[in-house]
Amino acid sequence: MNVSYRTNFILRIGIPLYLFISYFFISHSKLTLIIAILATIHLITFGLDVHRKGKWNKINLQHDQRTRDNALFAGNLIYWFTILVLLLGTLLIQNSMISITYPKLVGYLILISLLLKWIIRDYLNNRVESED
């Protein structure tokens, strides 16, 4: 979305908030807590970067060709990562090497994949900005 950085920051607050609510009231899983902490760190670094550059009221243009290409690359990379982890997880669960259920494996993998995609995409976009 092409919205202001302030609106983008406010929308991004929902992800760590949901993860912390999920940890404290639903799952009590340590992995959920770790993912929530990582999402919070990601949000804080985004906020500090916007504050340092003084862009709070400016429009965050996220849909130019480079950012779309970076998001597509990150999505393709995470797609193959997800397939590999699902295959390995299924093999490990069937052989009773890990004690996790299939729904938990899929749920955790979705959360980790989203975070990794955002991290890779933001890294590539920041690298392009610093080269300019």
Overall description:
It is a single chain. Helix content is 80%, strand content 3%. With 132 residues, the chain is mainly α. It has two domains: 1-62; 63-132. Strands 1-2 form a two-stranded antiparallel ribbon. The longest helix is centred in the middle third of the chain and has 30 residues, at 65-94.
SS elements, strand count? 2
- Mind describing the biggest β-sheet? 2 strands, antiparallel
Overall body shape: flat
> What portion of residues is helical?
over 70%
Order of helices and strands: EHHHEHH
Q: Counting H and I runs of at least 4 residues, what is the number of helices?
A: 5
Total discrete domains: 2
Order of the strands making up the biggest sheet = 1-2
What integer is the average pLDDT? 86
* Low-pLDDT runs: none
- Taking the alpha carbons of the first and last residues, their distance comes to 23 Å
